[in-house]
């Protein structure tokens, strides 16, 4: 199948491209990290987007200005405007096209990021697409302002030998490895007619933030009373389990991420050589 992945260089996007290619699909990548003409917030790029959408049989709409809690809990006008433009420009090209939109478990929590995703779900329903509601998907990503909690904890551990949490760590999340997520998305695409409007894509296992930290190291400090970016604890719908089940445990996933990267190995060689 000819498949277009919008946001192909993100944590989920990279894993999805690999998954699709491994299954023999003809994949087109689209990401502003590849070319500024791929910037979906710029309406001047709409003709190129419309052209590439028309050339593909299926579209994954993963592109969004997104990040971990320290980023999305401090929204700016630019954050709201950019994501609103990304949705308006992209959804205008998806009429009569089979597609999956990347939503979030925060879509019903009344926070700005979640509100944007809720609007995206409404667009998707009107256009007869399917919303994949992600629950804390993690994988290899660069540390920075937008990195997510597992990446942040690993960076702290590798830099200082300890982890300082932004909260008590008692709040619970469901974490899904990016490869499991990618496999699920490919299954959803192949069974698209049987998918409901919204599909929860998650591990279906609750883990506390402190448990995540303890899988990385034992030297941990907490901040009792710290803010929680998730204002509600939802329960996922298990419909997707009829078609797919996650296979990578949180321990296995974190162990994989803790392995030295190629860049770290090169640095070590330079220091010891």
Quickly list its features.
globular; alpha/beta; Rossmann fold; 12 strands; 6-stranded parallel sheet; about 270 residues; about 40% helix; disordered C terminus; 10 helices; single chain
Can you lay out the helices and strands and say which pair or pack?
Blueprint: E1 2-6, H1 11-22, E2 26-30, H2 46-54, E3 58-61, H3 69-72, H4 77-91, E4 98-104, H5 112-126, E5 130-134, E6 137-138, H6 149-160, E7 163-164, E8 172-173, E9 176-177, H7 178-190, E10 198-201, E11 207-208, H8 209-214, E12 220-221, H9 250-258, H10 262-272
Helix pairs in contact: 1-7, 4-5
Protein described:
This protein has 10 helices and 12 strands. The chain has 273 residues and is an alpha/beta fold. The chain has one domain: NAD(P)-binding Rossmann-like Domain (Rossmann fold, 3-Layer(aba) Sandwich), CATH 3.40.50. The strands form 4 sheets. It has a 6-stranded parallel beta sheet with strand order 2-1-3-4-5-10, with helices on both faces. The chain starts with a strand and ends with a helix.
| Unreliable sequence segments | 262-273
The Cα radius of gyration reads: 19 Å
Quaternary state reads single chain
Estimate nothing, just give the exact number of structural domains: 1
Helix count?
10
Mean pLDDT: 89
Can you identify the CATH class? Answer: Alpha Beta
The shape, in one word, is: globular
Q: Report the structural category.
A: alpha/beta
N to C succession of SSEs: EHEHEHHEHEEHEEEHEEHEHH
Fraction of residues in helix:
25-40%
Please state how the strands of the largest beta sheet are arranged side by side.
2-1-3-4-5-10
CATH architecture: 3-Layer(aba) Sandwich
Q: Tell me how many strands there are.
A: 12
Strand proportion, as a percent range, falls in: 15-25%
CATH topology: Rossmann fold
**Biggest sheet, open or closed, and with what strands and sense?**
6 strands, parallel
Assigned CATH superfamily = NAD(P)-binding Rossmann-like Domain
